[in-house]
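Fold this sequence, please.
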Amino acid sequence: MFDFDAGKLIVIGIVALVAIPSKDLPRVLRQLGQLTGKMRRMAAEFQGQFMDAMREAELHDLKKDLEKEVDSAVKGVGLNGSFDPMEQARKQIADTVEGPKKLADAPLARKEEPGA
């Protein structure tokens, strides 16, 4: 986060030993540890809230895309509230059964004889 490497931490530690009296050093280190823990918890909470917001935004986008696809599918099929699969099946069966009858009832094409 602050990009502290080992060398910088050693320099900070030496300066702290020189600047802070030895009797106050444990109290200062304890407060520093508590402050570091509080900052980490706040950062984790912020990251968790950020990730929740991202998931919610992704779900909202996914829901919008799904609704758009459903609308286009409904328009593409031509569903207008009168979709009856049984009626379509009856019509297909009737067309299949009546198809050969219509062909059989059709007059045969006559061949013209030469010379007639």
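The mean pLDDT is 80. DSSP finds three helices and no strands in the chain.
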